[in-house]
Amino acid sequence: MATQIATPAVDAPPIFCPSKKKVFYSEAEAVSFETTNRAKYNLQRQHAYKCDQCPAYHLTTMAVGEHIGNEVHRTTASHATFSANHSVSGREAQARQISDLRRKGQSNNDICATMGISYMELLQVQNWCLHNDFPLPPSQTPQGRQSGAVLGHASARARKAKVVELFKAGQSYESIRQIMLAEGSTESLIYGDYTAAKTALAPKKNVSTPVSVTLDAVSEKRKALEAELAALQRKENELLEAKRTKVKYCWDGKGVLIQKEANMFAIGLADVPELIELLEEIITREPVNNAAQD
User: Fold this and answer.
1) Which among 48, 82, 87, 245 has most CB atoms closer than 10 A?
2) Max CA-CA distance within the chain?
3) pLDDT tens per residue, range 47-66
4) Half-sphere exposure of residue 204, counting CA atoms within 13 Å on the CB side?
5) Which long-range contacts (CB under 8 A, 24 or more apart) does 63-71 make?
6) DSSP states of 40-76 as a string?
7) C-alpha to C-alpha distance for 53 and 276, rounded to whole angstroms
């Protein structure tokens, strides 16, 4: 990937960044570009930050506080050591809130409603915790059970059968998820059952049955090919005939018509001997170089 070069608004030297990211001369320029680009292409929100490898600014999709220069905050000691008064990133703040709510027994659905976030964003926070060694309590089902618990009276077969029926009825994955969560199923079981139902009920591809080859079939095929060859030969003869020179009487027998494809020449019978003499003379004499004659 080529290094992005900032175009200065005034006469200033261009900036080359070793990170090869798009560069901006100021935070305001970066914010203006991000706002326009996001509105035009419906992109994810980005934040401007000061680069630690060049004097320019860059954009990142990471939350404010998660980015320092070109390095990412990590909570493990192997990546960085934070002081007691370091700022808490947006993801870390969300992770702490989710952790507190789970300890209070709230389910994922309740947490999303409490925090005003989507289920997808909750999963993104969980993923952030996994990669940053942030301890997160296990999720609770709407009935307060730990992940992996299933209602005792709901067998696996009955659960899967219900997901299949919901899928056949045209329910979306989110609708099926909400229904099955209310009955005590877990996220992993619901996703697995939904995937299995979608695969089992997918339209089957048409597989053509091979046709057995018989002697009669071969004979019929040969006859069809022979008929096609005969038709081609007739067409070839017609084209050859059309190219031949033809001579016939015209003008009620008082003249001769000479025809070659689309070219025609008519001459009276009295003038035919003279035409023959002219043709013999042209044919028998030596060819003349037209260029030299000109």
Assistant:
1) 48
2) 126
3) 888 887 788 888 887 766 55
4) 4
5) 63/89, 63/90, 63/91, 64/89, 64/90, 65/89, 65/90, 65/92, 66/90, 66/91, 70/19
6) HHTPPP-EEEE-SSSSSEEEESSPTTSEETTEE--SS
7) 98
